[in-house]
Amino acid sequence: MHSVGIVALGTSGTTAADVVAVARGNARIELTEEARSALAASREIVDALAAKPDPVYGVSTGFGALASRHIGPDLRAQLQRNIVRSHAAGMGPRVEREVVRALMFLRLKTVCSGHTGVRPEVAQTMADVLNAGITPVVHEYGSLGCSGDLAPLSHCALTLMGEGDAEGPDDELRPAGELLAAHGITPVELREKEGLALLNGTDGMLGMLVMALADLENLYKSADVTAALTLEALLGTDKVLAPELHAIRPHPGQAASAANMLAVLAGSGLTGHHQDDAPRVQDAYSVRCAPQVAGAGRDTMAHARTVAERELAAAVDNPVVLPDGRVESNGNFHGAPVAYVLDFLAIAAADLGSIAERRTDRLLDKNRSHGLPPFLADDAGVDSGLMIAQYTQAALVSEMKRLAVPASADSIPSSAMQEDHVSMGWSAARKLRTAVDNLTRIVAIELYAATRAVELREGLTPAPATRAVIEAVRKAGVEGPGPDRFLAPDLAAADAFVRSGALLAAVEPVTGPLA
């Protein structure tokens, strides 16, 4: 594992960039003195309450529907161990490493806020595990998104105790105790409230939201580029992208998307000048309304980013330690704010995929492509061209529509009806990850079709940005027009080209930074 920087954790909220740096970039974590002082101060409050005979939830009581039982001092360490062991009840495939690292980092962020009552040494162990590249085994199923992501966080806490399985920096799966020992990390012995504090947050769904937003920012810019290439390949008009047209409907995302497309098309010899064979007053909606659809998605992202920033500034735990010495129960662990925007993004992503697929289909249909060969084939009939690439794209779009069905509209009671309304935010986040993955492939297929179509417009000069894209994508191993060949490797190379950011890296030296 290679560190790419250091993230300092204090008492205030962290940034989305910090989450991505730790989750994907293996950035090291350091606890500030401010955080250590806050941790010590809140622990003093918990220790004082633990010494009193009065029951305090999470300190000297059972949990959830069992909160009515008072737990004596002799059983409290066992109580905290037991909640971790019993709640580590996930099933199904393992969750991706980056998600687990985001989950652990965000829980540590809340612990360092000084509102959880966790001892400084426990927080330091959490940082040590992340810095060592040790990744707990977390399973796909187990979270209802309320009280937070309980099962996933429990599997992480289990590793801190030296129990269960984890993956080392060499990607080898081993018992967690062995991995801790190999890195000189002493397992934690949990005390009052600490087991509960390590489990009770929206950290998994929030981490996946932050990473989805980072991916979607790249994808929305990429989709503006591919939409522009399709417009160009179809000999469409760029007049609909004029800023004055978008100023009279002042959605900021729409204006940004139109400006991106206009920048890509600057200097094109194909747009709006070659319609003599079939004059068009207007282009089809999938071309003409591209900024409106992509723009609405961008504005949805802006709202989701606001929610993420608020959640990153939050300290989500129950009960929570307040500066005046109170330890109060609350409902801040409910994942509704995060779950809603996760679902909202899945809807927006599905629509972006849908309009991209419609543009691809138009490029392949000789009745609507304004002079392009059927399916962009070399010798139509002998060759099928990109016919089945569109089938693949359509299958991905269809799945994205299913993934757009909101998880947050569902709820299922748990814990003997004590926890009788849940957010399903973890489920919303998991399906959004799949949707983002599919959207990348959909945009890649449009890129593949549009670059081929532009190259088939012989005698016409594409925009400088388009030429830069074609040159870069061909160097990346994505073949241009020609007879039929094994298509899957080309599509995989186009997918990698979009996913890595290489598409934007090819365009922006010509256009300047896209919005």
UniProtKB/TrEMBL annotation:
Regarding how it is modified after translation, the entry says: Contains an active site 4-methylidene-imidazol-5-one (MIO), which is formed autocatalytically by cyclization and dehydration of residues Cys-Ser-Gly.
Cross-link 5-imidazolinone (Ala-Gly) per UniProt, renumbered positions: 146-148
Under PROSITE patterns, the record lists: PAL_HISTIDASE
Primary localization? cytoplasm
Pathway, per Swiss-Prot/TrEMBL? Amino-acid degradation; L-histidine degradation into L-glutamate; N-formimidoyl-L-glutamate from L-histidine: step 1/3
Pfam families xref list: Lyase_aromatic (PF00221)
- Compartments, record wording: Cytoplasm
Q: Which InterPro entries match?
A: Aromatic_Lyase (IPR001106), Fumarase/histidase_N (IPR024083), HutH (IPR005921), L-Aspartase-like (IPR008948), Phe/His_NH3-lyase_AS (IPR022313)
Q: Which reaction does it catalyse?
A: L-histidine = trans-urocanate + NH4(+)
Q: Name one GO molecular function term.
A: histidine ammonia-lyase activity
One GO cellular-component annotation of the UniProt record comes to: cytoplasm
* Protein's GO biological process: cinnamic acid biosynthetic process; L-histidine catabolic process to glutamate and formamide; L-histidine catabolic process to glutamate and formate; protein homotetramerization
Residue(s) carrying 2,3-didehydroalanine (Ser): 147
| E.C. number | 4.3.1.3
HAMAP family xref list:
His_ammonia_lyase (MF_00229)
What family does the entry list?
A: Belongs to the PAL/histidase family.
Q: What is this protein called?
A: Histidine ammonia-lyase
